[in-house]
Amino acid sequence: MVVGSRQDFLELTSGHALGDSARTVLTSCPAQHLYSSSKGNGKVARSIVREVEAGELGLDEASPLVETDSLHLEDSVRMWLRRIGQIPLLTPDQEVALARHSRLGCVDCKRALIEANLRLVVSIAKRFMGRGLSMQDLIQEGNMGLIRAVEKFDPDRGFRFSTYATWWVRQAISRSISDHGRTIRIPVHTLEAVNRMMKATSHLQQRLGREVTSAEVGHSINMSPEKVEDFQRAIAEPLSLDSPVGDSEDSALGEFIVDRTGESPSEAAARALMRSRIEDVLDTLADREREVIALRYGLTDGQPHTLEEVARCFQVTRERIRQIEQKALKKLKHPSRATVLRELIA
């Protein structure tokens, strides 16, 4: 049984005996047995662990825009890397034989083909570190892609399995990063373009020995500088408004951010003062005149109303409302009231 959960993913560390069906298939090939001992396998295992622990991410794939801490491997992952490092690689003949029998339903052959290519998953997974998922999660997702590749692989088409499986492993990891690696999900097609941009950025920084501009990155991959900047913003991790500020942790980030969509205290005070003074002026009118003016000019609910709408409210004709409005406006133009209104407009 190969990975189906995080626990299953480590199951092979206890060791598996090769099934009789797979053993028969491999011994029929003119090549070394898959599980025969090899003096070089211990070196391979140590090499894999050292390579991953050293953080050799592969500059062509690693993100230059995401700061990562030095890699710390859990003991379970160390055991996994040492375990798969002891499994010899398959020869082309062994690979084809196992793949053909796997397509015919041989479970042992399917498992043997998967286990022999687990190092390929690690090799690909380490290139995606620093993008939101742990090394263990990357390997887990890559293993699921490997299983899918074994199920779909047709050896009679002439391709090496590793070439075919690489696409499935990368797709599984990329999709998982897109779905789970970030607070805000990035679509897979966008993530592919982001990866291309990050790869170009890394190459240019390595070649020029300095930070590169959006225009330089865009020129190298035939992408506009504006698009490069859009992608850079898309991969930036959002900050929580509850994030503590300072060493005391008594203040949150949200307390220092201005709400530009709302009114400032001074604007709210000015609006309240203006409303109060307008109401004082309207209070000098008769009750019906004050209500008609308030409805017609939206002083009550912020929504101006037509003569027809106001007439329905008072159950009178439109003409009567027009007359009341004209009479009220004439009163408001009186110098004693007009002076106050002009001050508010100014």
From TrEMBL:
Instruction: Please give a single GO biological process term from the UniProt record.
Output: DNA-templated transcription initiation
- Boundaries of each RNA polymerase sigma-70 domain copy? 137-150, 306-332
Molecular function per GO: DNA binding; sigma factor activity
**Superkingdom per UniProt:** Bacteria
Q: Signal sequence: where?
A: none
* InterPro entries for the chain: RNA_pol_sigma-70_dom, RNA_pol_sigma70, RNA_pol_sigma70_r1_2, RNA_pol_sigma70_r2, RNA_pol_sigma70_r3, RNA_pol_sigma70_r4, RNA_pol_sigma_r2, RNA_pol_sigma_r3/r4-like
Q: Which UniProt keywords apply?
A: DNA-binding, Sigma factor, Transcription, Transcription regulation
| Residue ranges the record marks as coiled coil | none
Q: Which Pfam families match?
A: Sigma70_r1_2, Sigma70_r2, Sigma70_r3, Sigma70_r4
As for family, the record states:
Belongs to the sigma-70 factor family.
What this chain does, per the entry, is described as:
Sigma factors are initiation factors that promote the attachment of RNA polymerase to specific initiation sites and are then released.
Task: Supply the PANTHER family for this chain.
Answer: RNA POLYMERASE SIGMA FACTOR RPO, RNA POLYMERASE SIGMA FACTOR SIGD, CHLOROPLASTIC
Stated name of the protein: RNA polymerase sigma factor
- Source species: Fimbriimonas ginsengisoli Gsoil 348
